[in-house]
Amino acid sequence: MNIDINFLGILIGAIMASSVPLILAASGELITERSGVLNLGVEGMMIIGAISGFALMVITDNLFLAIIGSMLSGLLLSFIFGFLTQSLLTNHVASGLALTIFGIGLSAMIGKDFVGIPGKEFPLLFVNLKEAIPLFGPIFFGHSIVFYFAFLLPFGTNYFLRKTKIGLIVRAVGDSPVSAANQGINVLLVRYCCILYGGAMCGLGGAYLSLIYTPQWIENMTAGRGWIALALVVFATWSPLKVLAGAIIFGGITILQLHMQAMGIRIPVQFLSALPYIMTIVVLVIISRDSRKIKLNTPTSLGQIFYKEK
Amino acid sequence: MIKIERRNETSNLIYFLTPVLAIFLTLVTGAIIFYLLGFKPLEALKFFFVTPISDLYGLSELLVKATPLCLIAIGLSFCFKSNNWNIGAEGQLTFGGIVGGGVALLFYNHEGVYVLPLIILAGAFGGMVFAMIPAILKIYFNTNEILVSLMLVYVSKLLLDYLVVGPWSNPEGFNFPETRQFSDSARLPILFEGLRIHAGIFIALVSVFLAWVVLFKTYLGFQIKVSGLSLKTAKYAGFKGRKMILLVFMVSGACAGLAGVGEITGPIGQLHRMISPEYGFTAIIVAFLGRLNPIGIVFASLIVALTYLGAETAQIFLQVPKYTGQVFQGMILFFLLASDFLLFFRIKLSGFKKYEY
């Protein structure tokens, strides 16, 4: 088969674009989980981000406000989760699940008047370079600012967790909240911040879908990407750079499905779609069977309720 | 300073009353949300919670929807009580539906009394086997059952999708993503002419009774309860932890599988992509709302089933999206979890200096 080099570039560019919401949501959730909090509400926060971004864009006609608003709405939703799990000491799993269910419902209610409204063109950067350079042009140029932010984010997150003091504090809180508290760290505050940050990133991931990727509002348009992002964090063994790699693999599978359907390749698309989930389970088994490895990778207190007797 | 203290004991009455409080708060908040979105709140709530069950057909629909929710939640209560977080009931339901549906398709042109029991057993077996995956991985590889059971939901849904589009699709179905209609002897009997309520409700009721017996009257139920309260105590008492994990997952998977097979042999009558409107996830809310108690779960399943029905009615009369029901489901769980706080902790105001003259 003769592969057109430009087509290849466009294909890779499309794969990277489709992985953006995954990178954003997973990077946010990664910080949340690193602080020992398991928030299963990613899907709910993403979809709320998607509708609030789109609604704000329609109402204010200002894309900047829309992006900021989507992050704020994701943050607000995650605050419900934070308040429940951190201040009221509720179960993380149940609270996160409630958040997703609630978010999907609320987004549909808010969005009922926004169905069918066309989106606005989002400004793309370096468009002239996209055409000028073969192969690399369509891969790296002609994308939105959110795209570039998403691809820098894992590096920033990695630096933050490994090299900064606050990053160390976050990890300490996730690995041993009791010791961290004994060191005088305000565990509650750290966890709240991580939860809110995660919410904001999920909101942004959702807004990328409704404002840039497919600029319109469709009910339930995140279509399970929140769950994939959750899987991705585990798949990446809580390491930001692996999130980047994983998101490209997961995003690539999505895009490849479309092209394989078009080219009439006879592998059932469902098997491809199931691959990310199966691979996540395999990775989980590999990292979990060795108790040393799991300690190295997993935030030890993940999902446990922290309650300090005074 | 505000101080939080753990209560030493909680009253049983309050324990079962807080769900009622949670429902009340949900209705109030729901009214506020409706108001903010420009609906008349009381009218909207009426369309949501009263209109759907004001006739016989509505009541029958309520039971049709409550049946799978109740069944799954009963199974989940075994898991949750023993601190095993199976959140993949949706997947176990789907896989049970696939296995049961497969058997039903084998017998699509057979009639006979043996067909239905065979399908139901196959469905329960399918759900059970599927639930054993996260259990076995947890036992032998120490994997997190939350994540594994969740991932498997999507695997099973995609498998169902593949089957109904591909090999199992109806040869005379014009490429619609659905299988053949099951034969009459593969269908759960309808209880009343003209309504959709089917014999699956008896399966649910029997499981409620069995769960009650096991949880409250047997040594096994005691073991499950103790493992949930304190793993250390359970180990000290010599309970077999691994067997317990496997067992509760099997029970819960079988229940979810039964729910799946109940749907396809009951109201649906074939396999297609959407055999469950996320009953498996919603049942988690039911299990919590029912306080992991079999009787409580019966009531909880009726209430949560009403949010499904209400959303359908409100969609017709108010043109709200069908997902509106999920707003209420989410809120019920929020408020329930929040009110639990008052149950297990008390807030003490202390450290304020008294004003001195």
Topology:
The complex is a heterodimer of chains A (310) and B (357).
Chain A (H helix, E strand, L loop, with lengths): L4 H30 L7 H19 L2 H25 L4 H20 L15 H6 L3 H5 L4 H19 L1 H11 L1 H6 L4 H27 L11 H11 L4 H24 L5 H20 L2 H7 L13
Helix pairs in contact in A: 1-7, 1-10, 1-11, 1-12, 2-3, 2-4, 2-10, 2-11, 3-4, 3-10, 7-8, 7-12, 11-12, 11-13, 12-13
Chain B lengths: L1 E5 L5 H25 L4 H9 L6 H26 L7 H18 L8 H27 L3 H21 L34 H18 L1 H11 L1 H6 L4 H28 L10 H11 L4 H25 L5 H21 E5 L8
Antiparallel strand pairs in B: 1-2
Question: Mind explaining what this structure looks like?
Answer:
The complex is a heterodimer of chains A (310) and B (357). By secondary structure, chain A is mostly helical. Chain A is built from 14 helices and no strands. Chain A has one domain: Orthogonal Bundle (ABC transporter involved in vitamin B12 uptake, BtuC), CATH 1.10.3470. The longest helix of chain A has 30 residues. Chain B is an all-alpha fold and 357 residues long. Chain B is built from 13 helices and 2 strands. In chain B, strands 1-2 form a two-stranded antiparallel ribbon. Chain B is globular. Chains A and B meet through helix 4, helix 11 and helix 13 of A and strand 1, helix 5, helix 6, helix 11 and helix 13 of B.
Shape of chain B: globular
Q: Round the mean pLDDT of chain A to the nearest integer and report it.
A: 88
Structural class of chain B: mainly alpha
The major pleated sheet of chain B works out as:
2 strands, antiparallel
- The tally of domains of chain A stands at 1
Name the poorly predicted regions of chain B.
352-357
Ranges of chain A where pLDDT stays below 50 over 5 or more residues in a row are none
Q: Fill in the CATH topology of chain A.
A: ABC transporter involved in vitamin B12 uptake, BtuC
Domain count of chain B: the total is: 1
Annotation keywords:
heterodimer; A: 310 residues; mainly alpha; ABC transporter involved in vitamin B12 uptake, BtuC; 14 helices; B: ABC transporter involved in vitamin B12 uptake, BtuC; 13 helices; 2 strands; 3% strand
